[in-house]
Amino acid sequence: MLKNRKLKGFTLAEVLITLTIIGVISAITLPALQNNVNTTAMEKQTSKFYSQLQEMVDRYKSINGIDQIDSDIRSEANLRKYFKIKSKCATKTDCFASTYYSVRDLSKTYSLDDMSKTGNVSASDPDAATYLLADGTTFGINGHNIVFFDINGPKKPNKVGYDMWVAQISDDGNIDGYGCNDSTTKTTIATDLEKCLKGETGKYTGCFGHFVRNGFKFDY
Q1: 108, 126, 210, 216: which has the fewest C-beta neighbours closer than 10 Å?
Q2: Among 93, 99, 81, 182, which residue's Cα sits nearest to residue 140?
Q3: Could you report the average pLDDT of every consecutive run of 10 residues in the chain (220 residues)?
Q4: Where in the chain are the domains?
Q5: Strand pairing partners for 133?
């Protein structure tokens, strides 16, 4: 015959304490996990656009049998051959934020006009056409083959060196950060990063160069 046994369980106080601890841990770890997910997504999307851009340049040179890039590469007809363009933007601010921020210092801002006109393009020159891709990336290429692109369009966080980038297609078809040194030494990598993080006018030029040289990974 079975003896009577008292079943032991958790008290209400113990359950509440456990739930409180779980809540505190979740509040601490979930934002960090979400940030890691967002960062990884930004890295992949930026790398994807870079690959598409480089493929366009390489194929353009091969098909046309040329060694130097000409102005036709940025024509709408050519771009539509290589990118899944969802629509052409009526104005730049339909596809981009008008103001962007330094990746480290939100008190430092950049004008979209400055970034899209960089490369000594005159303010009187017509704006570069801008496009929205099927994956949400927006981009434009100005008269000096400066490529400005935002991998999630006008949506936040709107930070240069995170979701907004400025690159340049050289005459021979190399894609790099605008104004960056071709060298990949530790010194030039550090210099590009310093430019990017300073958040001063024009210093956004170092962000993309550093990102490419760092294996398409954020380390800041």
Answers
A1: 126
A2: 93
A3: 58 74 69 71 95 96 93 95 96 94 87 82 76 97 93 95 93 80 63 76 75 88
A4: 15-213
A5: 85
**What is the C-alpha separation between 151 and 216, in angstroms, rounded?**
14
How many residues belong to the chain? 220
State the Cα–Cα distance between residues 156 and 150, nearest whole angstrom. Answer: 10
DSSP string, 156-207: TT-EETTTEEEEEE-TTS-EEETT--S--SHHHHHHHHHHHHH--TTTTHHH
Asked whether the beta carbons of 69 and 60 are under 8 A apart, the reply is yes
Nearest partner of 73 among 145, 4, 163, 135, judged by Cα: 145
C-alpha distances (whole Å) from 67 to each of 82, 147, 170 are 19, 20, 11
User: Is 123:117 a contact under the CB 8 Å cutoff?
Assistant: yes
CA dihedral 26, 32, 37, 41 (to 10 degrees): 160
